[in-house]
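On clarity, I found the account of how folds are encoded harder to follow than it need be. Since the whole study asks how a given chain folds, the encoding of that fold should be made plain. For illustration, here is how one protein appears when written out as sequence plus structure tokens:
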Amino acid sequence: MALKKKPVTGMKDILPAEMAIRDYVIRLIKETYATFGFSSMETPCVEHIENLCSKQGGENEKLIFKILKRGEKLKIHEARTENDLVDGGLRYDLTVPLSRYYANHANELPSPFKALQMGNVWRADRPQRGRFRQFMQCDIDILGEPTILAEIELILATTTLLGKLDFKNFTIRINDRRILKAMAAYSGFAPETFDTVFIILDKMDKIGMDGVAQELAKEGFAQESIDRYLSMFREVTEGIEGVRYLRDRLDGVLDAQYADDLEMIMKSVDAVKNADFKIAFDPTLVRGMSYYTGPIFEISMDEFGGSVGGGGRYDEMIGKFTGNDTSACGFSIGFERIVMLLLERGYQVPGTAGKTALLIEKGMPADKLLVVLNEADKLRSAGTQVTIAVMKKNKKFQKEQLTEEGYETFQEFFIDKM
């Protein structure tokens, strides 16, 4: 059987030019989030299959790369269900593993715990622009903080990072799952149908208001409920006034404190922000994960044409492990999409040390090679990046290749001139 050169579908090889940007972004993420008090931590890439299939991950649970049992535990001929064959899977996000991690180590961690976790995740999804089956995620989470200070800090930390990467004019879209539920209840939808309603609502940006109305009607919902529901979306605005409008419209159905908290988050972020972006209320924002319990948010960028990050509050997930609910809120940036956009704009890593190539004649004797090695050592000690290479016949082409790799200066060493 012939060996294959290309990576597995949905995976990719990373060339040095991209790797340089990835390494820089990772360093900047760690430095920036550290200034907000986040501590790095890590979880295994393999998670218990019971945790991954706990109905916390929404549609992602259909995309798990599952791992067969090993050795004597794998009894294929005796298996009746998939559970008899599988006991683990590759994590599809970092939130479920973080919740298990916190449940296991809570007594060893500060409260609140501000976690930074970066690592690869895997989803058996259809590959497309900016989406792969293996990709890096970057999450910050605050566990044990019940107030909106968590949401404010997460948004400010994330937007500060994006500002340092020269992203401008992006939008933080924000909503609250409890407002979503109150709007559905006010319109006459039964609680058990909320998930169906929200799945359709989530298509608003693709199919428009009329498309949402048609799909709701196809599901058999009463026209009166559909009309009442969509009338709110027609009248609400994206600013703080929109939050106030729904607080008043949903009086008696929605706890006014939820709307007041959302307004406070928006005001606080807007007053303190140090990057060029806007924060906007979006009542159509749903977020696919079923574990969200309060405020939710996404980053929208026109140059990508979609979301490059998101998060929200998930106060009930850790309780699935411990039996006691723990306040939790997180924000994840789309690392792969951020890197893709930087590559497309020809981003140059700032402050990169000078790069020098020392080209030596073929057959350089040991005593003269030592001179070159000492010269390279001096340059490296001064902070210069140095590579040593044997001269090729086509020296011009060799220098052109090195220039493409970022080498700015060249030194040539010939045997008879040393």
Remarks:
- DSSP finds 14 helices and 14 strands in the chain.
- The longest strand covers residues 113-122.
- The chain has a mean pLDDT of 91.
- Residues 232 and 276 are 30 Å apart (CA to CA).
